[in-house]
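Hey, quick one: can you model this chain's 3D structure?
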Amino acid sequence: MLRSIKGQSFAGKRVILRCDLNVPIKDGKITDDGRIRASLPTIKYLVDQGASVVICSHLGRPEGAPEAKYSLGPVALRLEELLGQPVIFSEETVGAKAKAAVKLLTDGGVALLENLRFNPGEASKDAAERTEFAKQLAELGDVLVSDGFGVVHRKQASVYELAQVLPSYAGLLIATELDILKRLTDSPERPYTVVLGGSKVSDKLGVIGHLLPRVDKLVIGGGMVFTVLAALGHKVGKSLLESDQIETVKGFLSQAKTLGVEVILPTDIVVASGFAPDATFEVVASDNIEGTSFGSNGLGLDIGPESAKRFAEAVASSKTVFWNGPMGVFEFANFAAGTKSVAQALLSVSGLGVVGGGDSAAAVRALGFDESKFGHISTGGGASLEYLEGKSLPGLEVLND
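Sure thing. Here's the predicted structure for all 401 residues.
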């Protein structure tokens, strides 16, 4: 059972709070602050108790050294706006400057450390190096509250080793995410539909294998669908294709049939002349993708309007829905309709509708939906998928009594 912050007193304590503030930043501006806002309830909970809060997070994938484009400086400014109070920003993660920054904190104060991954110890493959970095972090606080759900599937210093150095607890966001995922695996209300998209079918095979015995309908779109269509014997032009996964796909299609799971595939596809927002395109039957004027050079970039309607009907008629992965290249307006249709349908689910993080969450925001209308938008795409595959997540295991 996870050690929770609920029922614990943090008054007068300095709390290291591991969040997932890995947000997209372009030209120094945050383009999607969803993960920052998701961290606010735990931050406010600790502040209201009178703790001084030292927040740490990674951003992007720097190679163990500072890179200006990956600085958490813009995140500190946004946190100040959202919290309505000053946030001390330490330009270093550990060491003298970090210690000086946290010493300025009074009860109820908040500080943010610079990007954890600017230090090679954070994501090192060497456990001893991670432990050494965790000990340096531990000098900045009395206890650890782990609330970065998007990283709990990673064995990294601030997620795993630090929780062994300091007394550690799970934050409110992690508790919410786990509650939702348990409902999806242990006691889903039926009909239960899983909608999968995104680029690679190989990324979703574990989820498919684990959830097939639990679901009523499996809806597949996105780039991964072309490997499924190829497994059915259809030509897919230059669309995304993992030819080495075709036999595996045939296996899960056969298993679905045995289990009585309805697999819903697109009947029409939006095929484009190339990968560009202004590419010319045609709608064609999914078993005839090469039947456009582009021939074998055609590239499938979205499900077609007929399929979008069928997918939406399957979602809206369900009591439980888990959606992970866009139906097409939603970043291009001409190829966003399928994704938008699924998102819209999810709003009308009378039970639990879950947006499974990652690109799906990004799509919901990019397409202008009101996030508060969805049952739940996960902050951890990879972590959610690994949990739904039945895998052990080290960042959670270390928080268990």
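One thing worth noting: The longest helix spans residues 34-49.
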